[in-house]
Amino acid sequence: ISRIKIGKDDVIDIHLHNEDEEFKRQTSAAYYWASQMLGDLLCKNVCFNPKTKFKEAQGCYIMTLGIIDECRKMGLGSLLLEQTYIIVRDLYPDCQMAYLHVVDYNTA
User: Is the CB of residue 46 less than 8 Å from the CB of residue 80?
Assistant: First the structure.
């Protein structure tokens, strides 16, 4: 688990799952994402499996990343992605790409 600061007192946890069985168990849970309120910001856990392979390259899969409507267009999603990439690069230097799961009704 890594923590990043987004404000003076606001911290977001990024949960890393790098064990295949644990990843499968977590992603199969219907209500896996444990959301947390940080002032007006609602972020869901960012989970990925760095062992995932895409066309023979090591990659990570970001299962969910969300910002509530009132806090969009403030760069918070980009901040979460940037911090996730930093963590992945530090822990898994061979990781060459990331895949972000996006729902088809997301218009943001």
Answer: yes
Compare 71 and 21 and report the one with higher pLDDT: 71
CA 23/CA 76 separation, integer angstroms: 25
- Residue 95: count other Cβ atoms within 10 Å of its Cβ: 18
Does the residue 10 lie in any domain? yes
Residue 23 domain boundaries: 2-100
- d(CA 27, CA 101) in angstroms, rounded, equals 12
pTM: predicted TM-score of the whole model, two decimal places = 0.49
Provide the token pair at 56: 């023979």
Cα separation, 85 vs 60, whole angstroms: 9
Quote the number of domains for the chain. 1
